Amino acid sequence: MTPRVYLAGPDVFLPEPEAWAARKKAICGAHGLTGVSPLDALDDEPHHWAGFPLWRQIAMRNEAHIRSCQAIVANLTPFRGPSADVGTVYEVGFARALGLKVFGYSTVAAPFLARTLEATEAVERDGAWWDCDGMLVESFGLFDNLMIPGGIDDSGGHLIAEDAADRWRDLAIFERCVRAAREKL
Amino acid sequence: MTPRVYLAGPDVFLPEPEAWAARKKAICGAHGLTGVSPLDALDDEPHHWAGFPLWRQIAMRNEAHIRSCQAIVANLTPFRGPSADVGTVYEVGFARALGLKVFGYSTVAAPFLARTLEATEAVERDGAWWDCDGMLVESFGLFDNLMIPGGIDDSGGHLIAEDAADRWRDLAIFERCVRAAREKL
Questions:
Q1: Burial of B175 (0-12, 13-18, 19+ CB in 10 A)
Q2: I need a surface site. Which of A64, A74, A114, A182 has the fewest CB within 10 A?
Q3: How far is residue B86's CA from residue B142's CA, in Å, rounded to a whole number?
Q4: Which of residues 51-90 of B touch A (CB under 8 A)?
């Protein structure tokens, strides 16, 4: 059995997301992993789920997919703000609690502090940065909120963050992350 | 034993976060719950954690706190963008995977779609909204990315989203969420 990896990310919001997922799965396959997309049908989906609204079915299906995997490969590229997509981060926390290995990648290399300073009107005071709402800006030199690299490191996973010319269409950084996953699974 | 609830939220970034956490814990106590703050010391923290950098210690401690609780009460108020704080959302996913009941609240009532349209230069095409990067805008009429209300509903929890005059200093909506948690625990 090849290890199963859940392909989390806002990639599901791209046009033609199934074709995109197929490309990511092909890369997984080439490296000896089975990529599981949030868009995949679920084997043996409980019949009563059909009575739930679509969004509930999607949420339940994604959780079930994660439970069936040994690892998660998450697209943590900043999404509509300084941080990663919250749907993806929910899944990273979910996977971490289940003991999956967590791998993440981003096509933006700038660290969290720089991205947050750019997105908020933060000011420096007493050696710390405070945003326009008077909330502290985390400055541990990390890639995103500390829970995310914390989960990755604790799980024995890996994070790759590098600039790509096309933030949402690059697959080279994803492929390097898949390769890192393969080495550790 | 009173039920233990983990108090997730970007409240840790407020000035004097310990005093703020004490206020939230007092509200929990008044409703028969033990509030557990991310800032609390951990009983029996493993000695070797002292060798990790501070941010790793915080991440490990937060995960350990969540494991010790029966529920999570998460401040899901939009934070530096259309969605909730990713550190909080990581913890919601983590708690959900462990089977905790998930409660959430927000001091902003506007739905996710309206917030996202306001934050991105989205355009309508073929009956859907697409942001300035050409990514689909989720439009299920929910409060945030579907994984979050999905986890809340599946866990048997509850979500309260209402406008407050002071987004980060209101405790009335938090208290209503605590009361809802008490009824279900």
A1: middle
A2: A114
A3: 17
A4: 53-56, 58-60, 62-63, 66, 79-87, 89-90
**A164, B147, B84, B175 alpha-carbon torsion, rounded to 10°:** -170
How high is the ipTM of this complex?
Answer: 0.98
Indicate the residue of B83, B96, B137 with minimum beta-carbon distance to A86. B83
DSSP at B64: H
Give the residue among A21, A3, A20, A17 at the shortest CA–CA distance from A180.
A3
Which one of A62, A133, A146 has the shortest CB-CB distance to B147? A62
Chain B environment of A102 (Cβ under 8 Å)? none
pTM of the predicted protein model: 0.98
- Compute the count of residue pairs across chains A and B with CB atoms less than 8 Å apart: 182
CA A138 to chain centre: 20
pLDDT (tens digit per residue) in B13-40: 999 999 999 999 999 999 999 999 999 9
Segments in A128-184 forming alpha helices (H): 147-155, 172-184
Residues 35-54 of chain A with CB under 8 A from chain B are: 53-54
